[in-house]
Structure formats: structure tokens, C-alpha cells
TrEMBL record, chains A, B:
Residues 101-225 form the HIT domain. Residues 14-45 have a biased composition (Polar residues). This is Aprataxin-like protein. The lineage of its organism: Eukaryota, Fungi, Dikarya, Ascomycota, Pezizomycotina. It is found in: Cytoplasm; Nucleus. Transmembrane segments: none annotated. One of its GO terms (biological process) is single strand break repair.
Length: 303, 303
DNA sequence: TATTCCGATAGTGAC
DNA sequence: GTCACTATCGGAATGAG
């Protein structure tokens, strides 16, 4: 899977959507921050050699919350509850996207787009709304707000285009239906005169999980394949391949939509495994599904 | 555990109970027997470098039983059913003890005494009755025969003495109550004038399993400790440390003895784990019990 | 429905 | 209640000095 990891690295460099990050990976200030008194609330990674992400960032040593504090709003208290536990890890990307130049792909007024730290497909991005009024809401609640939904949908569409372009870059050379375009690129044909290639946008899905584990609102932008060594158990797979995955297009959900029901969604996660591509069933035999997905991947990318 | 393995090797050499084995480990005939036509019913190990035991012996490739055979007695048919499957592996020790000089400790008119191939304690022997009229019976049935029981008991007692002597040899130097004897041995005191040491016979248990998996009647002669890397799961442990283990002294069982009941014995195998020495309970936490048994072993051998 | 580690549980096949 | 192998399932901790 090293190939995949390297290719995802490339994704940060291929597009014109430069992140707003402007701080270099390492600065003298970080070394100064090693003294406990200098750390205070702005946490820094204690081991510079550790690859930085929101998890290491969030879990970095910090003093216990002081007994005497300035009065807080209810909103910031809620945020405080989340901070410092894994459920709240995404807040770091939202509040400090510039700290993660390797993960953050795009920052707009409304969202931060990052690479999922544990991608479940060849391409797996997360779109994180920045609005504090929304970002701790359950997706079903947040996307009941029509205006907010419209905003996020537009950003998600842009993210999906980016994901499709990266998928084309990574897999285009394996694709039969993309061959003419691929060869034209090889001949130096300018972009505006290239023949249409495979429609990779069709292979990108956009949606939420019915029961997110990470507290902050996030929309998955994920390629169809489910080929990743990070897919390690049934729930990983079923969370993207049953109605537990709620397409962003389906929002707002009707009040009586069955997908709101906890029991129904828990059952979805425990369903028998079914190949997303050929429909073959695998019961509980996850390892067998994994081997099968490898074969399907080869055929899928060759379409 | 290499120490244990080596010490068990020693057991074949320490006592005067020479096995009846007289054939060397390897003969030219075995190589001749490699051709399929020469194998017939007397199976040979196909890979000479593999350490030989009844399992490799029994499982070695052999031709299917020929369609046309001489008429057989019912007894030999029963034996035929067992032959060639794991449940019948012990027959090789019974019929061909001379093939296993490293496993067989003693052969008498009535029994073969072997080292268990997967010992569940520091000392773990199996006493195999040679009587074809008994050796495929369930232990509860076989030991309802008073005369047979008397014979096997006498042999088992001898086997237990052998086991105790080997335990003393392996562990005597760690034992407080054995120190005087140990030091006397060191000073060259003749055996008949040695002070009494620790009573290792008390640490040897003799009995059967209520539901044996190996088809041929076998009596376990096992040291008390249960310290062995071959103890790998709960059933291994509980089969020796619940009423699933039936002391030979308890035979014949009464008709209404609860230990005859299948449901009761299956429950015994699934019981929560309890340390045989201190009575501490471990629920289902087998790994924790294993670590605890290591500590108990050190204290037990120091008694 | 975060991951990771450890370990308990279950099914299979065995020349 | 044979073993050995593979895998599934289940709980607990989760950073760092």
C-alpha cells in the first residue's frame, strides 16, 4: 500500500487549490515551546520527528484545565468537553488548518478539506464545515438547515471534482475508457482539446455516516473502490456500503426516514458483507471479502 | 521452554525401566519403503528429517485401503475405522512401541507408557493399555472391569513413581523441603542412606478425561503444576482441573455418578478459570491465568 | 459508528 | 474432550514525562 500513500501525498501538489497554510513545517519557535511554561494552551508537538496530524496535535501534553478560568459561553464549554479526547480530534484541522500542510487540501470561508488520516478507499477526503454554530451538530440536524446545506453542497461538489481529478491522475493509465485521453496527454495535446476520458466523478461518493464517531461534522468524499488496508473490519466496510452511508444529496432527511433509527443503523453495520461491485455475499467472512475486493479493484480501474 | 523439553528427553535415560524398543531410529528398510507399492499397510514417515511420533507415523501418506481385502473380524474393522484419522493416532504406540524410542518409556505385557507429545505440565505421561478387548472402550466402561482395573492401577502406580522420580530430578534443587536430601546426594551419600526429601509423589495425579478425544484408552500421569506452553486455552486447563479429570482411584464410577453426564462435563470445560493452587478466579481471562501460573510454579517448586 | 492492542472465541482441515 | 491455522469478535486504553 506504499504506492497509495505516496500517491495521496501527491494530491496536495497536483491541483491549483493551494491550501491557506503558510507556516513552514518546522520553525525555531517550536523548539522554544518545549518548555512547559511556554506551552500553555497553544499545544505543540513534543517530538518534531513525529509526523504531525490532528491526533498527535490534540494529544500533545497540555496542562490540566486550571481551576480558575475566565467565564465561558456555553458554546465554548461544549467545545472544551470535546477537546483532548479522540472524538474531538477534528477541531484541530478546523481551527488550525495551517498546522497541517500535508493533510489540508483546501480552506475556504466555510470549510476545510482534508485527507482522511485512515482512508478507506483509494481517495478518501473529509469536508469539515467551519461554522461553530453547526460543527457539533449531528449531520441530520445540521443539514436540516437549508441555507447551510446549500453552502456545504457547493463546497462538497468542488471537493468531489478535486477527488475525481486525483483519481484520474492515479488510475487513468489503467483504464480502457480513458485510453484515448491518456494517450492524448502523452502526445502533449493541450487540456482544452483533450478527448473526454473516463467519468471519474461517477466513482466518487459524497455523504455522511448516520452515527459519526468523530464529534465534528464531516462529509466523506470517497472513491467507490473500498480498497485500502485501513478497511479492517465489517463496520468499516458497512459504514460506507449500506444505508448507514447517507448521500449528501438525500438531505434534508424526512422526519420519518428510517435511516434516522438507531436500531436500523446498528443492524446495517452488522449486516452480512456484500461486494459493492458484483453483489456477491460473504456472510461474516471479512478476510475473504478483502481478497475479493483486490480482484474487483483491478477490474474496476480497468473499466 | 527449551529447558523443559530437554529435561523430558532425559527422562528416557534416568530410570532402569528400559523400553522394549530394539530397532534403531533409522534403517535402510525405511528408505526402500518410500515407493508406494512397498508401503502397503505398514506406514513409514515420508520425510526422514521430521521427528518421528505416532502422529507423523499415522498421518504419513498411504494408499487407500484396497477394495478387495481378506475377511476381517469386527474388532479389526473397528480398528480400521480409527486408523488414519487423528483420533486413532495412539494405536501406533500400542502396536509399534519400538518405533518410538524417544517417546516410549516402558512396555509391559499390559501397557505402553509414553511421554505425552503435547505435555500440559512439567511431567505428562500417558499409560496405554495394550488389550484390544479394552483399548477402544470409553474409560468409564473399561474400568468397570474390576480385573482390568486392578492390572492398570498397578501399572499406573509404577508410572507415577517414575514420574515422581523424574520430577524430583528436575525440580529437587529448587525445593526447600528437599534441600537436605539434595545436599546429601551432593556429598555422595548412597541412595539407601539418603534422608527423605520432598514427597513428589503427592504432586503427581493419575486419571482419565471424561470425554477423551483420542480413541484409544489412555490414563494421564501428570504433575500438578500445569505449567506448559502447550496449555493454550481454557479447555486444556479445565480438562485437568475440574471433575472432567477423573482420578483412576475413583473407578469404577457409580451408575449415577454425575461425572458420566455429558452436559455436566461440557459445562466443566467452559467453567471460569480457577488457579489450582491458590483458588484465585480468572473468569475467562486465560492469558492472565497463564501469567499467574508462572508465578505459582516458582513458589510450588520451592516448597 | 475514531485506532490500536490484546485476547477470547469459532471454524476448518489434517496424510 | 487432538493440534495448528486463520479469522472473527470483544473489551480497554488512548499523550507523555
Amino acid at each position: 500500500m506504499a504506492e497509495t500513500a505516496e500517491d495521496l501525498e501527491d494530491l496536495t501538489r497536483t491541483e491549483s487549490v493551494a491550501s491557506s497554510a503558510d507556516s513552514p513545517e518546522s520553525t525555531p519557535k517550536q523548539d522554544e515551546a518545549q518548555t512547559p511554561t511556554a506551552r500553555a494552551n497553544t499545544t505543540k508537538p513534543s517530538k518534531p520527528e513525529t509526523k504531525r496530524n490532528a491526533f498527535t496535535e490534540l494529544m500533545a501534553p497540555k496542562p490540566r484545565a486550571p481551576i480558575s478560568q475566565a467565564p465561558q459561553s456555553l458554546a465554548s464549554k461544549a467545545s472544551q468537553v470535546i477537546r483532548g479526547v479522540w472524538r474531538g480530534a477534528l477541531i484541530e484541522y478546523i481551527e488550525h488548518p495551517e498546522r497541517f500542510p500535508n493533510q489540508v487540501l483546501r480552506v475556504t470561508a466555510h470549510t476545510v478539506l482534508i485527507k482522511d488520516a485512515f482512508p478507506k478507499s483509494t481517495i478518501h477526503l473529509l469536508l469539515l464545515p467551519r461554522s461553530p454554530a453547526h460543527y457539533l451538530l449531528h449531520p441530520h440536524t445540521a443539514f436540516a438547515d437549508a441555507s447551510f446545506l446549500t453552502t456545504i453542497r457547493a463546497e462538497a461538489a468542488e471537493a468531489a471534482r478535486l477527488a475525481a481529478a486525483e483519481l484520474a491522475r492515479q488510475l487513468g493509465s489503467f483504464s480502457a475508457s480513458n485510453r484515448a485521453r491518456d494517450e492524448a496527454v502523452g502526445r502533449g495535446v493541450p487540456p482544452d482539446r483533450l478527448p473526454p476520458g473516463r467519468d471519474y466523478a461517477r466513482e466518487i461518493r459524497v455523504g455522511t455516516h448516520a452515527h459519526p464517531s468523530m464529534a465534528h461534522l464531516h462529509v466523506h468524499i470517497i472513491s467507490r473502490d473500498m480498497r485500502s488496508e485501513r478497511v479492517k473490519h465489517r463496520k468499516h466496510y458497512n459504514s460506507f456500503n449500506t444505508p448507514f452511508f447517507v448521500p449528501l444529496a438525500d438531505y434534508p432527511l424526512a422526519e420519518d426516514d428510517v435511516r434516522r433509527e438507531t436500531g436500523y443503523q446498528n443492524a446495517n453495520l452488522r449486516r452480512e458483507l456484500v461486494c459493492w461491485r458484483c453483489g456477491r455475499t460473504f456472510g461474516n467472512r471479512f478476510a475473504e471479502l478483502k481478497r475479493h475486493l483486490e480482484e474487483e479493484f483491478v477490474e474496476w480501474r480497468a473499466e
